[in-house]
Amino acid sequence: MAATGAAPPLTLRIDPALAEAAVERALASGGPMGSEALAGNRRRAEPLYGVVDPAERRAAFGRFALVEFETLGLAEPILRAIAERPTVAGRVRVALVGEARGRHDEGITCEPRGQHLGIRIEASRFGDPGATLAWTRHALGHAEDTLDPAFGFEPGWDEAGRSWVVAAAQARLHRLWDVSVDGRLAATGHLAAEPARRRHRAAIAGDLRGVSEAAIDAVIARLWEEPRPAFHDLLHWAARPIALVHIAAPGEPGLPNPDRCPLCGFAGDDVFPPAASVAVLVQADYPAWRAAHGLCGRCTDRYRFAGQLGGTS
Questions:
Q1: Do residues 1 and 12 touch, judged by C-beta distance below 8 A?
Q2: pLDDT tens string 112-135
Q3: Cβ distance 20 to 65 under 8 Å?
Q4: Which of 75, 286, 307, 312 lies in the 20 to 30 Å Cα band around 244?
Q5: Contact 12, 3 (CB under 8 A)
């Protein structure tokens, strides 16, 4: 499947399993012709059931799914999103499109020269062309950033070699980066700004417990409206959210939820201020500790249980 234009041709290579699932979802959703399209698909597929050899039958259905995928125009949102980004469209020659195992597995990756894109997407998205376009636009924003030397993307940043980046910080980095990508999308008119901005604010607020509402607004404005941060900035802010708060809202006294429990040093994303009854017990052992510093779930349970027994150790 090739698309042509001013740039050299782009070839889409669709995994037959994705094509089959996407066609099924698109037809089930009504599609452009509703029941007529579904009936036509079934008529065209009927002869394939007569293929005796199982392997040949599977291969025939795979080829059939690819033809139907193209006939229904299911690739159009992906092609349109790529064409909207000249930096990507001018480089990419082949896009490999396969089925993601879930929303957590979706994404677009590209090799350093940008000539090959790997697109992982859930088949369920193809039931709504608008949703497919919106997802591809956003995912390509991340891919385009990784191709820009000025961004300074570090391949493998989330692998075991960077052990100090815990899972919670990785998730925060993605949330911060998402705000920047969508802010630029909204500026081009390709995204409804207010609903997206509210959604991102709610997500970022969860990372900045203890920070004032005004400071959270300032953080969102910094990421949404100002020039794109470099990747090393995103890494730093994900590891130490308070650093971003101090840049966006100088003088803000709040203390965001830390990455590690201040008592046991355990890395995790469950460090929160405990109940007052637990805080009293902790301060008896650690006078410099304050409730705003938070405790992990394990330490909270230990002190809660110790309180029930009348001690802390």
A1: yes
A2: 888 999 999 999 999 999 999 999
A3: yes
A4: 286
A5: yes
Residue 164: the pLDDT is 40
92: nearest Cα among 67, 75, 73, 109: 109
- Cβ partners under 8 Å of residue 190, min gap 6: 84, 137
The CA–CA distances, whole Å, from 19 to 25, 44, 84, 107 equal: 10, 16, 24, 17
Q: Are 87 and 63 in contact (CB under 8 A)?
A: no
- How many CB atoms within 10 Å of residue 57? 14
With the C-alpha atoms ordered 246, 250, 256, 261, is the resulting torsion angle positive or negative? positive
Distances (CA, A) of 92 to 57, 87, 297: 33, 9, 47
* DSSP E strands, 107-216: 107-110, 116-121
Interatomic CA distance for residues 263 and 248, integer angstroms: 29
How many CB atoms are located within 10 Å of the residue 150 CB? 9
Whole-angstrom Cα distance, residue 198 to residue 221?
12
| More confident of the two residues 6 and 99 | 99
Which helix H or strand E contains 143, and what residues bound it?
Answer: helix 129-147
Q: Using alpha carbons, list the distances in angstroms from residue 25 to 58, 69, 95, 101.
A: 19, 11, 22, 16
CB 108 within 8 A of CB 117: yes
State how far the Cα of 115 lies from the Cα of 49, in Å rounded to an integer.
Answer: 39
pLDDT in tens, 20-53: 999 999 988 875 556 777 788 888 888 888 888 9
Give the predicted TM-score (pTM) of the model: 0.79
